[in-house]
Design brief:
disordered N terminus, binds magnesium ion, alpha/beta, 10-stranded mixed sheet, 468 residues, 4-stranded antiparallel sheet
Length: 468
């Protein structure tokens, strides 16, 4: 079996790179026709309130709305961290970033001069699925290390196409000043590379067509791999500032340029779903749509909205880490609104379970197999959410309640405030975290303190990748 798997991995790599002459092997690749395909569509910095079906009054998202009405709208779905690099590390590894060295107080994300990245021995969703013959592609923003040893191709992805870090990096001296360059951007202000596998194919990347080109690449990958199980990680660079959209979407939205950008992302989702249907794959493909963190509020109307949630990107109020999440799988998911608690770290164990991958037991996972919730067959395995800001737990949710042990504005120079006693909110009654009920529930506070203490004791120090 091991030999077979190795052969399959080799074949998978060749096929996804578009190498011809091995098409007759396709039939053999259908050894496991029951294996589902997985697609994660990740927006960058989109807020909880930026989608029609999540309550935005003027941004039109007919495709996301339809995806939710045919599938499931998840209203208590979280990320591992409120900024890009640690959030993505958590999503792809199923582990808190503090366990992989992918978070830091000094540098909150990786930068073009960073020397670190996701360590070689970390297993990603892609590398896990490859052990059972999946074709894998990462299209879009990576942000887990741009040096070859950390790049998507080193972490289980057969194919990579995208900008390896944030689209506001590699800023040039052409820009008037940072704020001006972001609010009135031109592609040449940010000389970010566009890469195909390890090769830079365009620099600066023409960001005006980036959403469109990611989408076309994704559709090409779906078509090329329709005969075998695949995992597509489509991590859009938008709507992270500076905002860019194609000409067809300019001045379309009542919500201004930010709305134009979201409406183009919505078009992209529609194209992906259409492609699945056209290729007869919609009944065998789980599609997950979410965002890596909340809206970047300091950019005013060019940042998004967390709707009724407090806070945004960078912080541990709900708006920073609760994301507009939609799951779609024609004929498999009972349509509806799912209020159970889950996180992006649950995707790895869930996909592994659905693809019959046995995960190595030499590490701690922070994710759970949430397929019982997806299919309505059982109870939510997740009880607790840890809200990390960099390397510290700032808050904990258990069930209805959330305790803030530390609070701090998302950005700016204001230092952290230790909350003793912690602030306590009932998130079902008060999702906006406005009414502190700590004095009414001392037992809940005591339980939260115990959970925190136990959790902290289980975290080992590892090499920090963001400070290298
Ligand atoms: Mg982000």
């Amino acid at each position: 079996m091991r030999i077979l798997n190795t052969q399959m991995l080799a074949i998978t790599g060749l096929l996804s790179l578009g190498i011809t002459g091995v098409r007759n092997i396709h039939a053999a690749e259908k050894l496991n026709p029951s294996k589902p395909n997985f697609i994660i569509i990740l927006a960058d910095d989109m807020g909880y309130g930026d989608v029609g079906i999540f309550g935005h009054p003027t941004i039109k998202t007919p495709n996301l709305d339809r995806m939710a009405s045919e599938g499931q709208k998840w209203t208590n779905f979280y990320v591992a961290a409120p900024v890009c690099t640690p959030s993505r590390a958590g999503l792809l590894t199923g582990r808190l970033p503090v366990r992989t060295g992918m978070c830091s107080e000094k540098r909150r994300v990786l930068f073009p001069d960073s020397k670190g990245g996701l360590p070689e021995n970390e297993m990603t969703i892609a590398s896990a699925l490859k052990t059972t013959g999946y074709a894998t592609a990462c299209i879009g923003k990576w942000h887990l290390g741009h040096l070859p040893q950390y790049a998507p191709n080193a972490h289980g992805f057969d194919y990579y196409f995208g900008i390896p870090y944030s689209n506001d990096m590699d800023a040039t001296s052409l820009k008037p000043n940072r704020l001006e360059s972001i609010l009135n951007p031109r592609p040449e202000y940010f000389i970010v590379p566009l890469m195909r596998n390890s090769e830079i194919i365009e620099r600066p990347a023409d960001q005006t067509t980036i959403t469109k080109r990611y989408t076309l690449e994704a559709i090409k990958f779906i078509k090329q791999n329709k005969q075998m199980p695949f995992f597509l990680y489509l991590a859009h660079s938008m709507p992270h500032v500076p905002l860019f959209r194609s000409r067809e979407f300019e001045n379309k939205s009542l919500r201004g340029v930010y709305g134009d950008v979201i409406e183009e992302l919505d078009w992209s989702v529609g194209e992906i779903l259409k492609s699945l249907k056209e290729n007869g794959l919609d009944e065998n493909t789980l599609v997950v749509f979410t965002s890596d963190n909340g809206p970047w509020l300091v950019f005013q109307d060019q940042g998004g909205s967390a709707g009724l949630l407090s806070g945004g990107k960078g912080g541990t109020w709900e708006g920073g880490m609760r994301e507009p999440t939609i799951m779609h799988w024609t004929g498999k998911l009972k349509p509806g609104v799912v209020m159970d608690i889950a996180t992006t770290m649950d995707l790895l164990p869930t996909f592994a379970s659905l693809a019959h991958v046995i995960l190595p037991n030499d590490r701690i996972y922070d994710g759970y197999d949430i397929s019982p919730v997806l299919f309505g067959t059982g109870k939510d395995p997740r009880e607790v959410v840890y809200y990390y800001r960099d390397t510290q737990v700032y808050a904990i949710r258990k069930g209805d309640y959330k305790a803030h042990f530390i609070t701090q504005p998302e950005y700016g120079s204001e230092i952290a405030t230790i909350q003793d006693p912690p602030l306590l909110f009932n998130l079902n009654i008060d999702p906006s975290e406005k009414h502190n009920v700590a004095d009414q529930f001392p037992k809940v506070i005591a339980e939260m303190e115990k959970i925190l203490e136990k959790h902290r004791a289980g975290i080992m120090t590892v090499e920090n990748q963001l400070e290298k």
